[in-house]
TrEMBL record:
<dbReference type="Pfam" id="PF06418">
    <property type="entry name" value="CTP_synth_N"/>
</dbReference>
<dbReference type="GO" id="GO:0005524">
    <property type="term" value="F:ATP binding"/>
</dbReference>
<dbReference type="GO" id="GO:0019856">
    <property type="term" value="P:pyrimidine nucleobase biosynthetic process"/>
</dbReference>
<keyword id="KW-0665">Pyrimidine biosynthesis</keyword>
<keyword id="KW-0378">Hydrolase</keyword>
<feature type="signal peptide">
    <location>
        <begin position="1"/>
        <end position="21"/>
    </location>
</feature>
<dbReference type="InterPro" id="IPR027417">
    <property type="entry name" value="P-loop_NTPase"/>
</dbReference>
<keyword id="KW-0106">Calcium</keyword>
<comment type="similarity">
    <text>Belongs to the CTP synthase family.</text>
</comment>
<dbReference type="InterPro" id="IPR011118">
    <property type="entry name" value="Tannase/feruloyl_esterase"/>
</dbReference>
<dbReference type="InterPro" id="IPR029058">
    <property type="entry name" value="AB_hydrolase_fold"/>
</dbReference>
<feature type="domain" description="CTP synthase N-terminal">
    <location>
        <begin position="599"/>
        <end position="847"/>
    </location>
</feature>
<dbReference type="GO" id="GO:0046872">
    <property type="term" value="F:metal ion binding"/>
</dbReference>
<keyword id="KW-0436">Ligase</keyword>
<dbReference type="GO" id="GO:0030600">
    <property type="term" value="F:feruloyl esterase activity"/>
</dbReference>
<comment type="similarity">
    <text>Belongs to the tannase family.</text>
</comment>
<dbReference type="Pfam" id="PF00117">
    <property type="entry name" value="GATase"/>
</dbReference>
């Protein structure tokens, strides 16, 4: 008797940017230890432990819920943090020289987790940053901030005039001295705990302070979160003056006022918003944005060739003069020496315009620049009204590049943090650094952080590699570089945050909050982390803690914004992933682009089936879908995703591909039941007279038909034996609210189990159970009682949440499975096994009554051992693959291709870095702006790829781009794999380029063309499209004298193989001889010898095309052979793979690290 496990989608869930797995790993909150004994919070204790030269200013016991700070007396940070946890607040003053001193504040929480956090300052501000410090105790950390040795607002620099010691305090000394003494006080205060880890968080000047401290004293911090660092003090602060001068004087026709800048911002957004594939008012790819502002140029007349449109203050300008456009161009451009063209400082990025007012608003340049030159460099005053009364002045109107060189030479206070090589010491001691910068920053250009990162990589000898070549289809040369960080990523990562302004905030509704410096304070006096998302996935500081303490690299974060960007109570508006450079987040075209998660029950179904197989049981799967289509054959890949092809030729839902990949089974088209199939089955019976004399209705005729279908199909052998399955898993498609998805289930105890899959969101820090409660209530109303409730969630559920779910869903706590995000979806079976799903399956399905042979039990054990070995990441390196396709806006259109690449990469212990490239973007364009930027970006990505794959598709669109990239791979010895359409276009391009057929094409593209390298199949039915292609498992025979073939070697040198097909067009047999004489060898053909199945270039590292879809048979523990060869060639280890014998299912495959 076959047992049934049914999985139901119980709630309508938010779909989003990413797949089930979180590439950045598990969310991880700081582990709080119970309170330990500490010294009393009183003056006598601290006065006793302070060294000479340090004086105690204040010690205060802060009780739970109290506020603390210095209020208006602290001109730099007048806002006091509120609702603090119980702690001890300490203020200390330290004499740094005969003429200077600095202060620092210390928060010592009652509940301490052995961590210490130092926070930075901003601008020229002089004051203790109590508001940022307050985050520390809320994380369980002791925290510290220095006042940098003076008291002033952020733009005030007069305190520095003729005060070299105060400049030194601001530049580096106050931060270092405060950190050293602060650690001493922490160690003294907590007598029974050791200080285990020290962290730093700062932005702008705070970012510079952190880098400077690490460069001078690498053992100060174990981890540092560095934002928008104003690290290049000598160049940045002088550039700020130059930026202001571009727009002065205010009476000059070149001047841009606020309305002018707003006009520019709107036009740049119009041109560049969609470069990332999403139109959302956020310029997420400013590096691709090359706006053509001539679209804003006012029309000229004979009398007024360059009009200034700003003549009516009541009406915003609709166009700009040439002089104004030059001002904008200067702000975007790098600052270079007008005499030598020497690079002096980066310019601003497109998208930063809403914050330009900081640099160009007013009658003189920003005080960040003027004040620095006047009070730090020249120690003078502003020009007096009567110059004869004061000769010690500096006039900003006299600014030129000599001021910058003067700053570079003298570097007041030794503030500049440009000792890039010094971070080698941080790396040696195991320290970690996260750099971040908003691409909408209008104060410190985003390129400053990029420049620091690149120079650090170069200084640590990580290497930069360059090629020079002509853009395809152009006559000019363009420089493309390929970046190799040489392993610097093991301690230093950089994140560029689309649309975020300086340190925090946005004018484009861009997600900007991720637990970085100053961000919680921007939300209020009592917030910390990211309200509602206090975990390592959404909070960069917690992610840094994970990296330092758990060894989990920070490859991705999720940023958040709200309906009111600074009010979390207004509700989440958007969440987006941000990736460690050079990767970038790209929307996959599915679900809600503003939600960073996507939920899928198919993985839970497949994982449950795998666990059952490890018991030695035979497992089958059925997918029931609500759509009326008979099958998936005619559905649009860009909307529905991939049409998966079975060995029998059935075209089915892509979830059946998941089942086959996880369970190593071969399913039939009958394992995918659709509403269309069910109705068609009943209608055909009615036409045959099976219901003669009866009124045919949904109940009982359609329902009985479905039940009979399930009983029959569940008994079909699927594992290569002739044995019926022991267990059949049924996945029901749709969500609550889809009337066509409402099903009735009838089964007895002992042979039926229901798993309800639901989503438990976290909102404002609270795990919400109501959606799951309502969903379970709904399905119970139909008589279906869940045996297990599988809860999808980002982070582990609290015990109280599990208890609440169990109570309201009327199940026991152990029946609630917590399916949290995992580093890879292939680890979900490990998670379910850890939560003891197997014992529940044994009990509910009476599995102990099933006789399992010793051979099957041994196979199950071997399968689990192999699975855990393959899916446990022990990556040696990265392999970067460019996937060039027609449907890249919907990644699920190529899901089997992606999975085959993943399986192969896991097998050779490489981490797959997959770049999605629209083939149309590779085709030359005469347009400018966004189209040209996409073209250059696409070819840039191609030039950085280790391997190129062109998968299948239909139609002419984008095929010229495919041909160009096949030529690139062929001529530059880049590993290449062409599948189906990719196979065909590579042959067409070869015919054009090598065989002297410039008009070569496909009959699919031009039925009347002379040189049709690809033709339609003779038996093609053009009237009835469904199921009329060459489908299913077909034989391929390797030809004589092909022992040299790498493709054949990957299959173990056998003569005959079987792979699955799905195509209507094929290589023209009349042109095969011509192509082969020119060097394109068709090493594999069908039984007739007339159909070409595999081509290969002999003198190329790996240039292989297959008419068949080898990806359809790829499995987690048994990767597709062509894909494995392609990935291995791209990773440089093909010879190692060729030495291995290909294996059958259930047999061990040797991994490259020697494990079984």
């Amino acid at each position: 008797m076959t047992r049934f496990a049914v999985l139901v989608a119980g709630t309508a869930v938010l779909l989003a940017l990413q797949a089930f797995a979180s590439p950045s790993g598990l969310s991880h909150e700081p582990r709080l230890r119970p309170p330990r004994k500490h010294q009393p919070c009183d003056r006598s204790f601290f006065a006793y432990v302070l060294p000479r030269g340090a004086a105690l200013e204040n010690v205060t016991v802060v009780r739970d819920g109290d506020s603390y700070g210095e209020g208006e007396a602290n001109v730099a940070y007048p806002k006091n943090p509120t609702h603090l946890p119980p702690l001890c607040a300490v203020t200390v003053r330290v004499k740094s020289s005969a003429t200077s001193s600095y202060r620092f504040g210390l928060f010592l929480p009652d509940e301490w987790n052995s961590r210490f956090l130092v926070v930075g300052n901003g601008g020229f501000a002089g004051g203790i940053n109590w508001l940022d410090m307050a985050a520390g105790p809320r994380y369980g950390m002791a925290s510290l901030s220095t006042d940098t040795g003076h008291s002033s607002k952020t733009t005030n620099t007069t305190w520095a005039r003729n005060q070299p010691e105060k400049k030194a305090d601001w530049g580096w000394r106050a931060m270092h001295g405060s950190t050293v003494l602060g650690k001493k006080l922490v160690r003294a205060y907590y007598t029974q705990q050791r200080l285990s880890y020290s962290y730093y968080s700062g932005c702008s000047t705070g970012g510079r302070q952190g880098l400077k401290e690490l460069q001078n004293f690498p053992d100060s911090f174990d981890g540092a979160l560095i934002g928008a660092a104003a690290w290049w003090t000598s160049h940045l602060n002088t550039y700020v003056t130059q930026a202001g001068l571009y727009n002065l004087p205010e009476t000059d026709p070149k001047h841009l006022d606020d309305d002018d800048v707003a006009l520019i911002a709107d036009e740049v957004t119009r041109q560049c918003d969609g470069l990332d594939g999403v139109e959302d008012s956020i310029i997420s790819s400013p590096d691709l944005c090359q706006p053509n502002l001539d679209t804003l140029l006012c029309p000229t007349t004979n009398n007024n060739p360059d009009p200034n449109p700003n003549t009516d203050d009541n009406n915003p300008p609709k166009c700009l003069s040439r002089a104004q456009l030059t001002t904008a161009h200067n702000l975007y451009s790098d600052y270079r020496s007008p005499t030598t063209n020497e690079f002096l400082h980066p310019g601003l990025t497109p998208g930063s315009e809403p914050q330009w007012y900081v640099l160009i608003n007013g009658s003189e340049p920003s005080p960040y620049g003027v004040g620095y030159a006047r009070d730090f460099l020249f120690d003078t005053t502003n020009p007096p009204t009567d110059p004869s009364k004061n000769t010690t002045t500096w006039d900003w109107r006299t600014f030129n590049e000599t001021v910058l060189h003067h700053a570079e030479t003298h570097d007041p206070g030794r503030a500049t943090a440009d000792d890039y090589a010094a971070l080698a010491a941080v790396r040696r001691r195991g320290g970690k650094v996260l750099l971040y910068h908003g691409t909408g920053d209008g104060l410190v250009p985003t390129k400053d952080t990029e420049l620091y990162y690149r120079r650090t990589v170069e200084a640590l000898r990580a290497g930069r590699r360059w090629w020079w070549w002509g853009w395809p289809g152009s006559g000019s040369l363009g420089g493309l570089w390929r970046w190799d960080d040489g392993g610097v990523g093991d301690f230093l990562n950089m994140f560029l945050v689309p649309g975020m302004q300086h340190c925090a905030g946005t004018e484009a509704d861009a997600p900007w909050s991720f637990g970085a410096a100053s961000q919680a304070g921007a939300l209020g006096n009592d917030t910390w982390s990211v309200p509602g998302f206090e975990d390592a996935r959404h909070d960069a500081l917690l992610a840094l803690v994970d990296w330092v303490e758990e060894g989990r690299p920070v490859e991705q974060l999720v940023a958040t914004t709200w309906e009111d960007p600074t009010d979390p109570a207004s509700g989440v508006k958007r969440q987006r992933p941000i990736c460690a450079w050079p990767r970038r987040a790209v929307w996959d075209g599915r679900g809600d682009v503003d939600d960073a998660d996507r939920v899928g029950k198919g993985i839970i179904a497949s994982s449950t089936g795998l666990l059952l197989k490890t018991l030695g049981l035979r497992v089958s799967c059925i997918k029931i879908d609500p759509y009326v289509s008979v099958d998936a054959g005619l559905m649009a890949p860009a909307e529905h995703g991939e049409c998966f092809v079975l060995s029998s030729g059935g075209e089915v839902d892509l979830d059946l591909g998941n089942y086959e990949r996880y369970l190593s089974v071969r399913l039939t088209s009958e394992h995918n039941i659709t509403t269309g199939k069910a109705y068609l089955n009943v209608i055909q019976k009615e036409r045959r007279g099976d219901y003669l004399g009866k009124t045919v209705q949904i109940v009982p005729h359609v329902t009985d038909s479905i039940k009979e279908w399930i009983r029959r199909v569940s008994k079909i052998p699927v594992d290569g034996s002739n044995e019926e399955p022991n267990v059949c898993i049924i996945e029901l498609g749709g969500t609550v609210g889809d009337i066509e998805s409402v099903m009735r289930h009838e089964a007895g105890a002992g042979n039926f189990l229901s798993i309800h899959v639901s989503y438990v969101p976290t909102v404002h820090g609270e795990q919400k159970t109501k959606p799951t409660q309502h969903a379970v209530k709904s399905i119970r109303s139909h008589g279906l009682i869940p045996d297990i409730v599988a809860c999808r969630c980002e982070t582990p559920l609290a015990e109280s949440t599990i208890t609440k779910l169990a109570l309201h869903c009327q199940v026991e706590a152990e029946q609630v499975l917590v399916v949290r995000d995992m580093p890879t979806i292939y680890q979900v079976p490990l998670l379910l096994r850890e939560q003891k799903l197997i014992p529940q399956l044994r009990t509910k399905l009476a599995l102990d009554q099933i006789t399992v042979s010793p051979e099957m039990a041994a196979q199950g054990t071997a399968l689990w051992d192999l699975w855990t070995s393959v899916v446990t990441p022990t990556y040696q390196d990265e392999v970067k693959i460019a996937l060039v396709g027609k449907y890249v806006t919907c990644h699920d259109a190529y899901i089997s291709v992606v999975k085959a690449l993943e399986h192969s990469a896991m097998t050779i212990r490489r981490k797959l870095n997959l770049m999605w490239i629209d083939s149309e973007d590779l085709e030359p364009t005469t347009g400018g702006g966004a189209a040209q930027a996409k073209y250059h970006k696409a070819w840039h990505d191609i030039s950085t790829a280790s391997g190129i794959i062109v998968p299948g598709g239909f139609g002419h669109r984008g095929t010229e781009g495919m041909m160009r990239v096949t030529k690139w791979a062929r001529e530059n010895s880049i590993p290449f794999l062409g599948v189906c359409l990719g196979f065909q276009v590579a042959a067409i391009q070869f015919a054009r380029d090598v065989c002297g057929m410039p008009e070569a094409t496909s009959e699919e593209f031009d039925a009347q063309a002379k040189d049709r390298v690809v033709v339609n199949m003779p038996e093609l039915d053009r009237q009835n499209m469904g199921g009329t292609m060459r489908l299913g498992l077909r034989k391929t025979i390797f030809q004589q004298d092909t022992e040299w073939s790498r493709a054949r070697s990957l299959y173990g040198g056998v003569e005959v193989i079987e792979e699955r097909h799905r195509h209507r067009y094929e290589i023209n047999p009349e042109l095969v001889e011509t192509l082969e004489k020119a060097g394109l060898h068709f090493v594999g053909k069908d039984e007739t010898g007339e159909r070409m199945e595999i081509f290969e270039l002999k003198d190329h590292p790996f240039f292989v095309g297959t008419q068949f879809h080898a990806e359809y048979q790829s499995q987690v523990v048994h990767p597709s052979r062509p894909y494995l060869g392609f990935i291995a060639a791209s990773a440089g280890c093909l010879d190692d793979v060729l030495k291995q014998e290909p294996v059958e299912r259930f047999k061990n495959v040797t991994l490259l690290n020697g494990t079984k």
